[in-house]
Each structure stands twice: as structure tokens, then as C-alpha cells.
Amino acid sequence: MKNEFVHLGANFYFRSLNVFNMKARTTILLAFLIFTASRSFAQMVQNVLDGRTFAIERSVNGKVDSKETLVFDKGMMDPLDCHQWGFTAATCQAKQSGQMATFRVVCKSEKEGTMAWQGKVTGEVIEGSVVWSKEGQDAINYTFTGKEVKAVK
Description:
Strand order of the largest sheet: 1-2-3-4-5-6-7-8
Order of helices and strands: HEEEEEEEE
Number of helices: 1
Distance between the termini: 80 Å
Shape: globular
Largest sheet: 8 strands, antiparallel, barrel
């Protein structure tokens, strides 16, 4: 009887270890799958335009007003030539639809207001509009067009 009790106790103990190990393995596997899926989704959303740079011309009423370089990286768009007015990189909402990517970005400057960009990229061509709003003055409505600048390797 004593040996049967020890045997049954050991059997229960080892079975409970197997259940624990199975639960632990399942939890670890589930956590890994969630982590991997969330990283893949984040990369898919952020990387639509990442790594691309465009040289554009901004126009007002059909006349070229200025030139600009737009850099897309890490889910952000950076209007390099607007740094002189305090505008910096901002989060880029972009999505791919077939061969075309569309995007929206709002860049802010403490002193110069906001620049709300929206556009589309088809192949190496970019086009869209930007509205520069600043308190105390009328908004300036631009259109822009440009081409992708390939990095020299």
C-alpha cells in the first residue's frame, strides 16, 4: 500500500509537471507568434515609402515657388528644405494600393505653423498638395511634383 501511494504520488507529480510544461510552452509560443505578427504588421505599415527620397518642386497658382527634398524613413517624412523654418520630420500615414502609394503628413514648427502634406507615389513619380497654415495669415496652398532620387552606392 505504501509503495502504491508513492507510485501514485510520483505519477501525479510528473503529470502535473507535463501539464505545466505544456502550458508554459503554449504560452511562450503564443507570445512569440503575437510578437512576430505585430512586428510584421508594423513593418508593413511603416515601410510603404521608407528608404525613398524625392526631389520636388512646390508651385503656387501654377508657378514654381521652391524646390524641396522629401525623405521617407522609419515611418516618417522629413521635408529637408523646410528645416530653415523649423519644420522637422513627422509621422507619415501611408498605404499601398496596387502600384500606387498614398500618404498624409502634418509637419509642425513652433513659430511657422503647420504644413499638411498629402500625395501619391506611382513608380518613381510623386505628386500632391501641401497647405502651409500659420496663425495670423492666410493659408498658402501648394501643389508639388517630383521624382525619386536614387541613392549612389
